[in-house]
User: Which sequence fits this backbone?
C-alpha cells in the first residue's frame, strides 16, 4: 500500500486495476462471510422444508407399497371416494367459519379492551390471551372433558335451563360446531392481540379530528379505524386461514375425525390414511390438496407485508 | 335574525351534548366491562375446569356432583403423576427437546438474520422472503414426506432416527427457525445503520458487531424469539405423534394423551392434572414475560 | 502527519454519480467544513474518507498513505454521527472506551483517556449513565468524547448538530471549536448549515451536485464568491441577484437595473469591469447589508434610490426590508431607527464598492 503511494503518476492504470482487484476481494470476503452465516439456515430449510415439500409431490404418484409409479392414480382414487369430498367440504366450512368468528370476536374484544382505562388493559389482555398460550393439545383435552358424553359440565349447566343433554361430539353437526368452537376459542386471542396493537398505533388526533368533524361512533370505526387497520386485518386473517386450514391438533384430539368421518379435515384425514392406514402416498395426495389455498393466502400475505414495509 | 337563531340553538345543544357524551362514555365503559367479563369467562373456563378436575378424586368425578365445584379437594393426582417415572420421563423429554431446539434455533437464526439484515449479498433479499414463505408451510404438509425421508435415511445409513426423541430436535427447527429468523431480521433492521458504522470505525469486526452490539441491543427481540421457539417446541403434537411411539421416548402432549387414555377408560382427574402440568411451563413464561411474548406475537406481521 | 488528500475521487451508484471527481488537500491540524444542499455529495465524500463507502475512482490519502482499500478500523479515524450512534446498552464510559477495549489497550490507559476527555467535555458526572438518560446535548458530548479518546489522526463529523434545537446548536458549535483548539486534530466536518460552516471552519468547501464549487476561508467565500451558487448559499439573508446591464456614457460606466434606475460605478469597480461587454444581460449581486438607508452625506460609491417596501422584518439590532424591483424581490438591511414603516416608500442606497457582477448564463462571478 505504502509503496503504491510513492509511485509516480505513470503507473496510475496499474494502481487502479490493483485497487479494483483488492476491492473485489474485500467485497467477496464480506459476502462469503454473510453466505456462511446463512448457510445453516439454507441447509435446514432446503433439506427439511423445501425438499420434503417436493418429495411429497413425488410420493403422491406412487402406489401404497411405494414401488410402482401410478401417476395420478391416487388422485383418481380420491375423487371417486365420498369421504374425500366430505373432507373437502368440511375443511372449507371449518376454516372459513372458524377464521370468520375468530376475526369477528378478536375485533370486538380488541375494541372492548381498547375502550377501558389504560391501566386496566394489561390485566384484561393478560386473561384474554391465555387460550393462545396453553398448548392446544392440552387445552383441547379440557374441552374434550367439558364435552364428555356422560359427565359434560356444559350439559350439567344447560340442564338448569331445561336444555339438553346435547351430544356435543356424537352428533355430526354438533361435533362440527364443537370443533369450530374450540378452534375459535384458541385462535381469537391472536386476532385480539394483533388488532389491539394496530388500534394503539392509530394516532389519537385522527379520532379527535373525526369527532370535531362530527363523526359518530360508527363513522369513526368505518372511516378511521378500519382503513388504518385494513392491512393488519388482511395479514392476520390470511395467516390464520393458513394455520386453521392446516390445523391438526384440535380435531384429532376432540373427535379424531368422527363421528363417521364427519369432522375430518385434510390434515386429520391425511394422518388417518397415511400413518394409521400405512398408505403414505395416498396420505401425501390428501395433504397436497391444502397447497392451493395455502399458496394463494401466502401470496397475498407477502404482498400485504411488503406494502406494510413500504409504508413504514 | 338567522344568525341569532343559530347562536340560540347552538348554546343549549352544546351543553346537552357534553352531558350526554360523558353519560355515553360511562355506559360504554359499563358495557365494555360486562362483555369483557363474558369473554374472559369464555377464555378461562377450560383452564379453570382443568384445575377443578385435577383436584378431584376419581370417586368424586364419577359421582357426578356439581362439576364446577370441588367438594373434597385432594392433591392425589399431582402426587401420583409427579412420582410416576413415566410422567417424569415425558417431562424430561419435553424439556430436553425444547431446550435443544431453542439453542439450535438461536444459533441458526441469529447469525442468518444478521447477515440478511445487514450484509447484503447476492440473493439475500430473495432469501429473506423465502424464509418467510417457509414459515407458512404447515407441519401437516410435511409430516408424511419427512416420515418417509427418515425411514429411507435409516435404511441407507443404518441410523434409525424414527422412534427416538432426538428426531424431534432435528424436525422442530423447521417450525421455529423461519419465524425466529424473520422476526430477528425485523429487530436487526430497526437498529440504526450508524450504530454498526460506529462499531466498524471503532475497530469491531462483523462478528464483534453482532455479538457486542447487535445481540445486546436486540435483546428484547431475542427474548421474544426464544419464547416463541420454546412454546412451539413444547406444544408441538403432530410430529411426536408421527415420529415416536415407545413410551420412554414420548414428549408430554403425546405422552399424556396416549398413556393416560387407556382405550375407553378416561382417568379424567389425572388427564387434567397432566394437561395442567403440561401447560404450566408456557403459562409461567407468559406470566412473567408477557410483554416479550406479545412483542414476538405481533412482530411477525411487520417488516423492519 | 495527518493531512488528508483527495485526488479525483468519484463515487458512482449504479448509474448515478454522487461525487464527480473531487480534489481536496486538507492540511494537518486544519478544520475543514464541507457544506452544501442535501444531495450535493458532501456526506458521501465524508463516508468515503471514513471508509464506509468504497470509492469508484480516484485516491484518498490519510497521512500520506493511500487508504482506498484500507478498512475503516485501520484508517485511524473517528466519526461523530448525526444521530450520535451511541451504543444504547453501554454506559457513557463503556461507549467511549469501546474502540480502545477492542484494541486491547491497558485498563489504566483507557481510564486516563476517559477521564481526560470527560473533563474536557464537562461530562465527568455522566460517565456511569446510559445514553437513554442523557439529553441531546449530553449525547452529543459523549459522541465527541468517543472520538477524542481514540486520539485518531482525523475527526470526521457528519452533521453532528442537526438533531439539536437552535440554542443548543450554538452552544455545541462553540464547544466543538474549543475542543478542536485544544486537541488540534485534523477535522472534516459536514453540514448543510452555512452558519455552522462559517463559524467553525478554517476553510470551507462548498459543494454542489457532486462537485466542489469553491474552497476558501469563510471570509474569502463571503466577500469573493466564485459562482452564483456560492454567493447565494453563503450569507443569510441570501445575496440579491438583480438583472442588469453595463452601460458606458461619456467614459463613465453605469450599471442599469431598470429604465429609471442606473448607478454610476465607483472608479475601482469601473476599472475592474472595464473588459466586460457592454449592454449584455448580467446579474448584479448585492448583499442585504449593502442596501441600506440613504444617508445625508453618502460615501463615494454609495448611490441612493427610492424603493416602495412590501414587507419589513424588525430583528431588533437591524431591520430587513423587502421590496420589488422589476419583478425580483430584493432584501435590504436598514438600521432600526431608519424610519422604515411596515409598507410604503423609503429612500435606500446601494453600496457599489461591494457589488458583484455575474454572468447570467454561467453564473460565474466576474
Assistant:
Amino acid at each position: 500500500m505504502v509503496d503504491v503511494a510513492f509511485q509516480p503518476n505513470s503507473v496510475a492504470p496499474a494502481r487502479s486495476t490493483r485497487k479494483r482487484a483488492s476491492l473485489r476481494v474485500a467485497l467477496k470476503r464480506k459476502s462469503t462471510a454473510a453466505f456462511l452465516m446463512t448457510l445453516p439456515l439454507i441447509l435446514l430449510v432446503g433439506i427439511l422444508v423445501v425438499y420434503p415439500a417436493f418429495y411429497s409431490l413425488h410420493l403422491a404418484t406412487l402406489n401404497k407399497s411405494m414401488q410402482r409409479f401410478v401417476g395420478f392414480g391416487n388422485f383418481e382414487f380420491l375423487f371417486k371416494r365420498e369421504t374425500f369430498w366430505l373432507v373437502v367440504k368440511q375443511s372449507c366450512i371449518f376454516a372459513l367459519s372458524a377464521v370468520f368468528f375468530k376475526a369477528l370476536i378478536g375485533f370486538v374484544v380488541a375494541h372492548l379492551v381498547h375502550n377501558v382505562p389504560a391501566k386496566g388493559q394489561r390485566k384484561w389482555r393478560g386473561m384474554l390471551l391465555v387460550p393462545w398460550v396453553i398448548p392446544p393439545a392440552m387445552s383441547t383435552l379440557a374441552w374434550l372433558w367439558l364435552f364428555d358424553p356422560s359427565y359434560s359440565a356444559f350439559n350439567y349447566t344447560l340442564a338448569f335451563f331445561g336444555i339438553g343433554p346435547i351430544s356435543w361430539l356424537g352428533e355430526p353437526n354438533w361435533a362440527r360446531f364443537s370443533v369450530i368452537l374450540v378452534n375459535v376459542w384458541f385462535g381469537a386471542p391472536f386476532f385480539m392481540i394483533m388488532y389491539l396493537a394496530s388500534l394503539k398505533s392509530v394516532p389519537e388526533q385522527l379520532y379527535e379530528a373525526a369527532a370535531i368533524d362530527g363523526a359518530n361512533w360508527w363513522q369513526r370505526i368505518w372511516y378511521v379505524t378500519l382503513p388504518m387497520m385494513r392491512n393488519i386485518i388482511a395479514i392476520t386473517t390470511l395467516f390464520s386461514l393458513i394455520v386453521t386450514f392446516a390445523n391438526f391438533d384440535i380435531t384429532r384430539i376432540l373427535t379424531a375425525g368422527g363421528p363417521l368421518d364427519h369432522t375430518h379435515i385434510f390434515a386429520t384425514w391425511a394422518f388417518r390414511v397415511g400413518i394409521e392406514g400405512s398408505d403414505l402416498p395416498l396420505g401425501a395426495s390428501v395433504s397436497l390438496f391444502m397447497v392451493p389455498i395455502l399458496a394463494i393466502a401466502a401470496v397475498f400475505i407477502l404482498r400485504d407485508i411488503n406494502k406494510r414495509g413500504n409504508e413504514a | 335574525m338567522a344568525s341569532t337563531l343559530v347562536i340560540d340553538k347552538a348554546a343549549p345543544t352544546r351543553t346537552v351534548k357534553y352531558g350526554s357524551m360523558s353519560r355515553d362514555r360511562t355506559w360504554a365503559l359499563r358495557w365494555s366491562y360486562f362483555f369483557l367479563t363474558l369473554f374472559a369467562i369464555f377464555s378461562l373456563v377450560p383452564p379453570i375446569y382443568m384445575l377443578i378436575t385435577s383436584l378431584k378424586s376419581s370417586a368424586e368425578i364419577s359421582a357426578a356432583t356439581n362439576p364446577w365445584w370441588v367438594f373434597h379437594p385432594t392433591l392425589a393426582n399431582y402426587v401420583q403423576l409427579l412420582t410416576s417415572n413415566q410422567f417424569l420421563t415425558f417431562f424430561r423429554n419435553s424439556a430436553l427437546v425444547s431446550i435443544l431446539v431453542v439453542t439450535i434455533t438461536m444459533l441458526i437464526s441469529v447469525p442468518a438474520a444478521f447477515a440478511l439484515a445487514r450484509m447484503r449479498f447476492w440473493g439475500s433479499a430473495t432469501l429473506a422472503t423465502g424464509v418467510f414463505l417457509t414459515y407458512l408451510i404447515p407441519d401437516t404438509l410435511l409430516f408424511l414426506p419427512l416420515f418417509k425421508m427418515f425411514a429411507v435415511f435409516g435404511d441407507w445409513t443404518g441410523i434409525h432416527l424414527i422412534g427416538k426423541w432426538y428426531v424431534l430436535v432435528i424436525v422442530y427447527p423447521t417450525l421455529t427457525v423461519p419465524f425466529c429468523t424473520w422476526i430477528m431480521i425485523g429487530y436487526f433492521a430497526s437498529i440504526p445503520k450508524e450504530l454498526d458504522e460506529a462499531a466498524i470505525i471503532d475497530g469491531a469486526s462483523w462478528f464483534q458487531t453482532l455479538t457486542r452490539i447487535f445481540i445486546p441491543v436486540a435483546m428484547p427481540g431475542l427474548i421474544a424469539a426464544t419464547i416463541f421457539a420454546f412454546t412451539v417446541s413444547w406444544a408441538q403434537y403432530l410430529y411426536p405423534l408421527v415420529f415416536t411411539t415407545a413410551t420412554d421416548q414420548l414428549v408430554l402432549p403425546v405422552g399424556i394423551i396416549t398413556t393416560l387414555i387407556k382405550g375407553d377408560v378416561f382417568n379424567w382427574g389425572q388427564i387434567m392434572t397432566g394437561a395442567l402440568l403440561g401447560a404450566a411451563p408456557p403459562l409461567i413464561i407468559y406470566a412473567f414475560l408477557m410483554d416479550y411474548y406479545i412483542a414476538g406475537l405481533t412482530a411477525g406481521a411487520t417488516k423492519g | 502527519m495527518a493531512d488528508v488528500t483527495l485526488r479525483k475521487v468519484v463515487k458512482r451508484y449504479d448509474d448515478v454519480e454522487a461525487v464527480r471527481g473531487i480534489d481536496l488537500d486538507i492540511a494537518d491540524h486544519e478544520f475543514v467544513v464541507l457544506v452544501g444542499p442535501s444531495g450535493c455529495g458532501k456526506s458521501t465524500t465524508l463516508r468515503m474518507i471514513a471508509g464506509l463507502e468504497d470509492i469508484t475512482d480516484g485516491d484518498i490519502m490519510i497521512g500520506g498513505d493511500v487508504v482506498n482499500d484500507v478498512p475503516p478500523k485501520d484508517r485511524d479515524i473517528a466519526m461523530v454521527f448525526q444521530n450520535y450512534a451511541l451504543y444504547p446498552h453501554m454506559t457513557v464510559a463503556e461507549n467511549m472506551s469501546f474502540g480502545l477495549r477492542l484494541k486491547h489497550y491497558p485498563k489504566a490507559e483507557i481510564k486516563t483517556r476517559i477521564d481526560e476527555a470527560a473533563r474536557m467535555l464537562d461530562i465527568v458526572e455522566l460517565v456511569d449513565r446510559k445514553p437513554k438518560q442523557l439529553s441531546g446535548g449530553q449525547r452529543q458530548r459523549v459522541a465527541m468524547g468517543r472520538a477524542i479518546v481514540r486520539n485518531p489522526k482525523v475527526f470526521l463529523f457528519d452533521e453532528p448538530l442537526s438533531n439539536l434545537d437552535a440554542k443548543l446548536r450554538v452552544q455545541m458549535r462553540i464547544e466543538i471549536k474549543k475542543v478542536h483548539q485544544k486537541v488540534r486534530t485534523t477535522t472534516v466536518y459536514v453540514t448543510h448549515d452555512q452558519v455552522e460552516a462559517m463559524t467553525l471552519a478554517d476553510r470551507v468547501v462548498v459543494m454542489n451536485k457532486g462537485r466542489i464549487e469553491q474552497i476558501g476561508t469563510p471570509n474569502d467565500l463571503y466577500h469573493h464568491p466564485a459562482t452564483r451558487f456560492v454567493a447565494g448559499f453563503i450569507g443569510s439573508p441570501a445575496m440579491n441577484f438583480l438583472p442588469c446591464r453595463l452601460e458606458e456614457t461619456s467614459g463613465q460606466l453605469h450599471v442599469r437595473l431598470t429604465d429609471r434606475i442606473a448607478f454610476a460605478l465607483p472608479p475601482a469597480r469601473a476599472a475592474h469591469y472595464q473588459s466586460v461587454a457592454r449592454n449584455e444581460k448580467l446579474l448584479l449581486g448585492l448583499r442585504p447589508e449593502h442596501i441600506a438607508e440613504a444617508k445625508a452625506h453618502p460615501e463615494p460609491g454609495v448611490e441612493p434610490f427610492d424603493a416602495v417596501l412590501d414587507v419589513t422584518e424588525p430583528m431588533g439590532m437591524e431591520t430587513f426590508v423587502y421590496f420589488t424591483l422589476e419583478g425580483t424581490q430584493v432584501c435590504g438591511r436598514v438600521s432600526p431607527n431608519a424610519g422604515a414603516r411596515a409598507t410604503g416608500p423609503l429612500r435606500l442606497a446601494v453600496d457599489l464598492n461591494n457589488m458583484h457582477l455575474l454572468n447570467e448564463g454561467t453564473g460565474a462571478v466576474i
